[in-house]
Amino acid sequence: MTPVFDWSFALEILPTLGSALIVTIQATLLGMLVAVTLGLVLAMLRRSRLRVVSLPVAFVIEFVRSTPLLVQMYFLFYVLPLTGLRMSPLATGIIALGLHYATYCAEVYRAGIEAVPKGQWEAATALNLSRWRTAVDVVLPQAIPPVVPALGNYLVAMFKDTPLLSAITVVELLQQSKMIGSATFRYTEPLTLVGLLFLALSLVAAWGVRGLEARLQRYGGKR
């Protein structure tokens, strides 16, 4: 009788899944780097006093947030090359993840910035600090630590969205498990391992975010 779960087969395919896991982690970390960096830029631009800057940025944020990530991936992978701009499937996926989640991070940053007491802005103005110095030295050090948990949630969410990369031919973790299943007609082991790997890494990411939050609070993040 064939066992429901074959441990020897699971150990045999684990290295293959591990190589695909590297692609998944790479896409998540680089995509999140794009998201947190671009998100901060978008948040600052949306708060600009110049409506010619803030309104288009607000439109872009709402447009990207209101359209599916998968559609955006298809657009970047299949439509953008028609303009002459070609990227590898993995690079396209990383940019798509980064752009999509940057709009969510921008709103998180904006909420954190607007939560800084108005007196902080007034004190910086009284000290004749420029808007750049006020933002970098006064506002952002107080605004970012409280929003770290929300940014961490998007990190985990992005990690779980990486299977969408298979739609643009990236062989990530889930896609590799399906390829193994189609070749061996055994899906229980690869899909179970994928679920366990996603669970383990999501828990590690959540633990890391909590540690970062505690460190930021310890070094002046609390208000």
UniProtKB/TrEMBL annotation:
Regions that span the bilayer: 20-45, 191-209
The keyword Amino-acid biosynthesis appears for this protein: no
GO biological process: amino acid transport
GO cellular component, one term: ATP-binding cassette (ABC) transporter complex
InterPro entries with a match to the protein in the record: AA_ABC_transptr_permease_3TM, ArtM/GltK/GlnP/TcyL/YhdX-like, Ectoine_EhuD, MetI-like, MetI-like_sf
Subcellular location: Cell inner membrane; Cell membrane
Similarity remark: Belongs to the binding-protein-dependent transport system permease family. HisMQ subfamily.
Descriptive protein name: Ectoine/hydroxyectoine ABC transporter permease subunit EhuD
Membrane topology of the entry: Multi-pass membrane protein
Domain ABC transmembrane type-1: 17-209
Keywords in alphabetical order: Amino-acid transport, Cell membrane, Membrane, Transmembrane, Transmembrane helix, Transport
NCBIfam families the UniProt entry points to: ectoine_ehuD (TIGR03003), HEQRo_perm_3TM (TIGR01726)
Organism: Achromobacter denitrificans (Alcaligenes denitrificans)
Top-rank taxon, per record: Bacteria
CDD domains: TM_PBP2 (cd06261)
GO MF, one annotated term: transmembrane transporter activity
Pfam families: BPD_transp_1
